[in-house]
Specification:
The protein has 14 helices and 24 strands. By secondary structure, the chain is an alpha/beta fold. Bound molecules: ligand EPZ.
Length: 420
């Protein structure tokens, strides 16, 4: 397993190109299953989760080519020949569940392995199944697989999500695009990645109203055609590197980022003493004074994103004063806390909240990555800490961040990947 060696203490300075959003690219790749025509996607991030989705869609029968002149340009062609998503792929990545809606809509049946839980929580898929059942699917679970069928096709309906779910919203939108009649989704998730999914589906001929709101109206169509789409920039990657500028007291230009999707994150950055400036095609982020403790509560968009919680935990661990972070989305998303405390942070977890007492500085130590965003929070701490930090299990990081050591080294960080 690869490891990172980080020697901290240097303010970062320079430009970082922000890539396409992992959490937009994954559902949008599943859209390739919704048409027999060619779907061309640009700005697809080259990360492990995308590779897994690539393999999953390929084993459903589609041909996928990657532009030799642009590794972020994927083209999907061909027809579905297999409507089963096997355990050995789904168990690697929960987002594999996003092929369920498209397979059901196109083939009238699907057999998808139940995704296991993961480090941050049990992450059930009951809402996905309830919503698809409301669209007329007959679903049963046997030997760890979801067996779904809709031999006469899906039928539009009105479905109210009892609580906000990004993945369940995405699965249902994709299925409803090919259902007979109108579907109304109430209390749907409103993340920017869902808006990007809607944009792609519309370019394929889908009829969807209410983009960006919690109330979506989808008029089913007989078929979707091919399209070209460029994936939205990754607001979480952007917020993560903004924390790198903040924790090292440096200044970074985050190229390709737009402030419009980062409202709550920018508010939190400015509240704790990090400055953010919107430029033509970049966000410039710097910290010159001291960091101040603040309180944060994670919420569905447009609230503060849970995917930024671990990164802010690292940032606030070296602020003046105390902070409180409440995690309302996942039940076990504080596994970075004991690792940060090994580096000298003073964080106490009480149920779904963590109290952070800022310390003057952190010290490098060997630490363990436990999940994607926790991995980066430990990198951030290592960039600020005196001495050397060794981060183990970097495979967690490679699932969702492209070329981290290259991007950070170009801005003055001392970070090296030791291949296992
Ligand atoms: C998406 O996960 C993202 N993943 C997550 O990002 C993100 O943290 C999450 O949305 C919340 O924003 C992708 O988009 C690939 P949910 P998802 O359904 O769709 C519960 C990252 O780091 N729930 O909105 O799985 C669930 O357990 C990843 O990039 C049910 O109970 O999240 C959670 O507590 C991590 N039943 C809450 O709802 C269901 O059927 C929100 O989950 C579905 C969800």
């Amino acid at each position: 397993m690869d490891r990172f060696f980080i020697r901290g203490g240097k303010p970062l300075a320079g430009g970082i190109l922000i890539g396409g959003a992992k959490n937009a690219a994954l559902p949008i790749m599943a859209c390739a299953l919704l048409t027999s025509e060619t779907l061309s996607l640009r700005n697809v991030p080259r990360i492990v989760d995308i590779h897994t989705m690539h393999d999953l869609i390929q084993q459903h029968g589609l041909q996928i080519s990657i532009d030799k002149d642009d590794p972020h340009h994927f083209t999907f062609e061909g027809e579905i020949t297999n409507s089963e998503a096997p355990y050995h792929i789904v168990s690697k990545m929960r987002a594999s569940i996003l092929v369920l809606g498209p397979l059901l809509a196109r083939c009238g049946k699907a057999r998808v392995s139940l995704p296991g839980g993961c480090a941050i929580g049990t992450r059930p898929v009951n809402l996905h199944l309830e919503a698809l059942t409301a669209l007329g699917a007959e679903i049963e679970i046997d030997s760890g697989y979801i067996n779904a069928k809709a031999p006469k096709g899906l039928v539009g309906t009105r479905f109210v999500f009892p609580f906000v779910s990004v993945g369940a919203t995405e699965n249902t939108i994709m299925a409803a695009c090919l259902a007979k009649g109108k579907t109304e989704l109430v209390n749907a998730a409103r993340e920017p990645e869902i808006c990007d999914l809607v944009d792609c589906l519309r370019s394929m001929g889908a009829n969807i109203q209410g983009k960006g709101t919690g109330d979506l109206i989808i008029e089913g169509v007989d078929a979707l055609h091919g399209a070209e789409h460029s994936i939205l920039f990754d607001r979480i990657e952007c917020g993560t590197y903004a924390c790198a500028a903040g924790i090292t007291g440096g200044e970074l230009r985050l190229i390709g980022a737009q402030s419009q999707y980062l409202g709550a994150v920018i508010h939190a950055l400015e509240e704790c003493g990090v400055e953010v400036f919107q430029e033509e095609n970049a966000l410039r982020v710097r910290r010159t004074g001291s960091l101040r403790g603040i309180d944060i509560m994670t919420e569905p968009y447009p609230g503060f994103p849970t995917d930024m919680q671990a990164q802010f935990m690292a940032l606030l661990s070296v602020s003046e004063g105390a902070s409180m972070i409440s995690e309302t989305i996942f039940e076990n998303r504080f596994m970075h806390v004991p690792e940060l405390n090994r580096m000298g942070a003073r964080i106490n977890v009480h149920g779904s909240s963590a109290i952070i007492r800022g310390v003057h500085s952190l010290s490098g130590a060997p630490v363990m990555a436990t999940d994607l965003r926790a991995s980066f929070s430990l990198i951030l701490a290592g960039l600020a800490a005196a001495g050397e930090t060794r981060l183990n299990r970097v495979y967690h990081l490679d699932r969702g961040y492209e070329a981290v050591e290259k991007k950070l080294t170009a801005c003055g960080a001392q970070i090296e990947r030791i291949k296992s």
